[in-house]
């Protein structure tokens, strides 16, 4: 989300700790992995030992029978192979489980985000953070972890062996450690900065593609392919530059650490040779020590390559944790409604100003929606009609005043209990890439008789019969295989199926032909007296029969009455009716 977020100076410890929390439930897999790799590592010092033995005693005829060479060597590698396989398997067992938990945590965070977060975050960002990022983190950490186990443990074993062979000399070799640490610290700092920039610009790239896919029609209509390509290439170049800088910083790690290691190595070999000459210890001890040292150096070289993927993993994980930590929807209510509400909604002196807005969207608004009645909300665009729905559904909280449902302040209700009382058809139709039936019976038990009833009421039954698989036909991404009117009717059917006490229709019939609109209105009329119906409509002819009409203007209630009363008053509503009559 924070495309402009700068890397903080020490993000790694908390990120590492939080990542560890996800591994913790699967710690036994991790412990067994480590044990398996200890098995591999324990056999490592046997190699220089055998080399030393072969050099020392192997050249004399009666030292050991030659058949022992393949038996010992093959045996050693079989043991290493078994431990190696187990280690890798258990490692992935742990990681795949961790990824599932990590994704689950991200999805549950996503499902509880505050409505305002959705106004800032592009869907692509969420997809990237929930789907791709955990996988990427795990891949990177897996490779790092495996290398640490594969190279780090044998390196430790080898260091132990070197101490055993010649502790003074081994201790001397540690003098390069502080220098090595300093070099790696500098390289890591640079990599972290560049990785964060690369990650942020990559999210921008995801959002560009997201835009292009959603707005493909607009792009084609404007002949804007070249324009979009340019916009994409711009961000793509930024990603490339940041990736390159990260890679360059990472590529410095190995040569720099090797340079430091070579200083230590040459120094130690000199001292070892000097010792061998002085003590006359012979070729065996020297061969053992130098073979072990060389093996250690090659292991350490692999380890110095791990800084780059580890840094990248931490940067991505930090992005995921930002999503996990984003503001959650407040749900302070504790009260659950025992039965479906009657549906009387009252707003008392309600004020609402959106964050960052200069004008209030609602300003001291007081109005009521009577239970079992149809109330229409009308008013100019931007008057605050949808903001009322926003508050009724508990997506936002009023800055002032209160809203009650059957006399209970909705703030005291849990969000779940509150929203159970509403079925909404909003201006923006949202359908799932699923069958007609699953779109209608969304998140509710399937009841075929009720499904048919909802489809008939939404004037969609006959159409659905013509579909190749009837109600099981897939409607495409966001209902892309349906016409605008069919999508709207499907959303109406979904609302009717929910059978909530309050129905909200926000411009819900704007895309319907006259016949469908009449059919839907007749179906709704059949529920009259049993449902509280709130209708927002710009076409005033559709709300003529409402029990009450609230006329909104600039976040305030301008006038209220029935169609006839408002016409008689000859105020704002009458002017709107005249204006529309003039248009038609
Ligand atoms: N998330 C938001 N952040 C900031 N301002 C917002 C937000 N949503 C709505 N607004 C502003 O609040 C005011 C009321 O908007 P609202 O959507 O409630 O109007 P409306 O009457 O439903 O309009 P329309 O008939 O065009 O749908 C508008 O000025 C709008 O710009």
TrEMBL record:
The entry's keywords: ATP-binding, Cell membrane, Membrane, Nucleotide-binding, Transmembrane, Transmembrane helix
Membrane topology designation: Multi-pass membrane protein
GO function terms (MF aspect): ATP binding
Highest rank taxon of the organism: Bacteria
Xref: SUPFAM superfamilies: ABC transporter transmembrane region, P-loop containing nucleoside triphosphate hydrolases
Transmembrane stretches, start-end: 28-47, 67-91, 155-184
Residue span(s) of domain ABC transmembrane type-1: 31-312
Domain ABC transporter residue range list: 345-579
InterPro entries, sorted: AAA+_ATPase (IPR003593), ABC1_TM_dom (IPR011527), ABC1_TM_sf (IPR036640), ABC_transporter-like_ATP-bd (IPR003439), ABC_transporter-like_CS (IPR017871), P-loop_NTPase (IPR027417), Type_1_exporter (IPR039421)
Chief location category: membrane
Cellular compartment(s): Cell membrane
Name used for this protein in its record: ABC transporter ATP-binding protein
């Amino acid at each position: 989300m924070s495309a402009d977020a700068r890397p903080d100076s020490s993000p790694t410890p908390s990120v590492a700790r939080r990542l560890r929390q996800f591994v913790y439930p699967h710690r036994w897999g991790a412990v067994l992995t480590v044990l398996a790799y200890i098995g591999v590592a324990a056999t490592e010092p046997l190699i220089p030992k055998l080399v030393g033995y072969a050099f020392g005693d192997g050249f004399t005829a009666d030292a050991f029978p030659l058949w022992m060479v393949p038996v010992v060597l093959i045996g050693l590698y079989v043991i290493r192979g078994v431990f190696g396989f187990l280690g890798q398997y258990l490692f992935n067992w742990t990681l795949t489980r961790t990824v599932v938990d990590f994704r689950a945590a991200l999805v549950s965070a996503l499902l509880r985000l505050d409505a305002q977060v959705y106004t800032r975050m592009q869907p692509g960002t969420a997809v990237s953070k929930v789907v791709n990022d955990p996988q990427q983190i795990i891949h990177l950490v897996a490779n790092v972890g495996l290398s640490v186990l594969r190279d780090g443990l044998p390196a430790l074993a080898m260091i132990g062996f070197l101490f055993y062979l010649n502790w003074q000399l081994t201790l001397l070799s540690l003098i390069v450690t502080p220098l090595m640490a300093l070099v790696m610290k500098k390289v890591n700092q640079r990599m972290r900065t560049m990785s964060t920039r690369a990650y942020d610009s990559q999210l921008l790239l995801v959002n560009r593609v997201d835009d292009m896919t959603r707005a493909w029609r607009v792009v084609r209509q404007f002949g804007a392919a070249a324009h979009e390509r340019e916009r994409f290439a711009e961000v793509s170049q930024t990603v490339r530059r940041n990736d390159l800088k990260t890679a360059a910083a990472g590529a410095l790690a190995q040569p720099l650490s090797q340079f430091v290691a070579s200083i230590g190595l040459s120094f130690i070999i000199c001292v070892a040779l000097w010792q061998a000459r002085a003590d006359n210890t012979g070729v065996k001890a020297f061969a053992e020590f130098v073979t072990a040292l060389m093996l250690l150096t090659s292991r350490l070289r692999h380890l110095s390559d791990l800084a780059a993927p580890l840094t990248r993993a931490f940067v991505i994980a930090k992005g995921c944790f930002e999503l996990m930590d984003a503001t959650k929807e407040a749900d302070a209510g504790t009260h659950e409604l025992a039965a479906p509400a009657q549906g009387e909604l009252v707003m008392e002196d309600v004020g609402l100003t959106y964050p960052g807005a200069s004008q209030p969207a609602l300003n001291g608004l007081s109005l009521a929606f009577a239970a079992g009645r149809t109330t229409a909300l009308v008013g100019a665009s931007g008057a605050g009609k949808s903001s009322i729905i926003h508050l009724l559904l508990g997506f936002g909280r009023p800055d002032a005043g209160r809203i009650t449902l059957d006399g209970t302040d909705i703030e005291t209700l849990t969000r779940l209990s509150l929203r159970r009382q509403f079925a909404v058809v909003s201006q923006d139709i949202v359908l799932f890439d699923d069958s007609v039936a699953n779109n209608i019976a969304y998140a509710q038990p399937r009841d075929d008789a009720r499904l048919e009833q909802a489809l008939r009421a939404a004037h969609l039954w006959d159409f659905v019969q013509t579909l190749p698989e009837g109600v099981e036909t897939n409607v495409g991404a966001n209902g892309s295989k349906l016409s605008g009117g069919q999508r709207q009717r499907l959303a109406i059917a979904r609302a009717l199926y929910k059978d909530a006490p309050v129905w909200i229709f926000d411009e819900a019939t704007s895309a319907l032909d006259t016949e469908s609109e009449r059919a839907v209105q007749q179906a709704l009329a059949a529920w009259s007296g049993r449902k509280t119906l709130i209708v927002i409509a710009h076409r005033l002819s559709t709300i003529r029969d409402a029990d009450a009409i609230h006329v909104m203007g600039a976040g305030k209630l301008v006038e209220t009455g029935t169609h006839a009363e408002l016409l008689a008053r000859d105020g704002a509503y009458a002017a709107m009716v005249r204006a529309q009559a003039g248009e038609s």
